[in-house]
Design goal:
- The protein has one domain: Rossmann fold, CATH 3.40.50.
- Helix content is 39%, strand content 15%.
- It starts with 10 loop residues before the first strand and ends in an 11-residue tail after the last strand.
- By secondary structure, it is an alpha/beta fold.
- Strands 3-2-1-4-5-6-7 form a seven-stranded parallel beta sheet, sandwiched between helices.
- It contains seven helices and seven strands.
- Helix 4 links the parallel strand 5 and strand 6.
Length: 251
């Protein structure tokens, strides 16, 4: 039982691994001895680690991602974990303006359709070993509407239900699919709101722990969902939001 949370030797594919939450997960999970394949179209500089492999790939290019996973499987004979972390947020900055169709299409292509395609590819390899964990990074926006960004909320809500559908279809093959939903985490996507003192404090006051999340706050839950510690858990939503969704707003 002492190694129940170990991810040492596991082969983990992380989309959106070039920056933000995905980069932090990639670096730290590799530090724990997992073979981490960090997938993105560009990368911020990271410390060299023999367990961390960075691969340039646009995940909306289904065929290219498929070839990459085939290469990974040929080398390791397994893919243990897929973390669908890639995501974009294209809010409309002007109040009372109709949300543009091009932003809707772009957001759903990355946040939902690509996650579906990546999962379909990896499931093919997980079936061969009758085991695997897919972790979809959703959001508190999967539960609540946020202003001027209907595409983001729709994509994350769709991803939440997609996970449950995949969990139902593939559980009999030993494949687990769960959602990890961050609250307000300090990243490049949220830096504009964090740097605005008014919005930063508003969100702190609505969070039970009275602070914004750090990227490291998601590491432990991801290790849990990747490890044998969660081997009987599937189709579930795990929110790392400091109590945002629980807070009724009434003191």
């Amino acid at each position: 039982m002492k190694d129940i949370f170990s991810i040492k030797g596991k082969v983990i594919v992380i989309t959106g691994g070039g920056n933000g939450i995905g980069q932090n997960l990639s670096v730290n999970m590799a530090h724990e001895g997992a073979y981490v394949y960090s997938i993105d179209i560009k990368f911020q500089k990271t410390k060299k680690n023999k367990f961390l492999i960075e691969e340039n790939c646009d995940i909306t290019d289904f065929k290219k991602f498929e070839k990459l996973c085939n290469k990974i499987f040929k080398k390791h004979k397994k893919i243990d974990v897929l973390i669908n972390c890639a995501g974009i947020s294209l809010a409309e900055q002007k109040p009372n303006k109709i949300y543009p169709m091009e932003k809707w299409i772009s957001t759903l292509n990355v946040n939902l359709t690509a996650a579906f395609n990546c999962s379909q590819v990896v499931i093919n390899y997980m079936i061969k070993n009758s085991t695997g964990s897919i972790i979809n990074i959703t959001s508190i926006a999967a539960e609540q509407g946020f202003p001027r960004n209907p595409a983001y909320s729709a994509s994350k809500g769709g991803l939440k239900i997609l996970s449950k559908s995949l969990a139902k279809d593939w559980g009999r093959f030993g494949i687990r699919v769960n959602n990890l939903g961050p609250g307000f985490i300090k990243t490049d996507i949220t830096k504009q709101r964090y740097n605005n003192e008014k919005t930063r404090k508003q969100r702190e006051e609505l969070t039970l722990l009275r602070r914004w999340g750090e990227k490291d706050d998601l590491l432990g839950p991801c290790i849990f969902l990747s490890s044998d510690a969660s081997k009987f858990m599937t189709g579930q939503d795990l929110y790392i939001d400091g109590g945002w969704l629980t807070n009724s707003g009434i003191e």
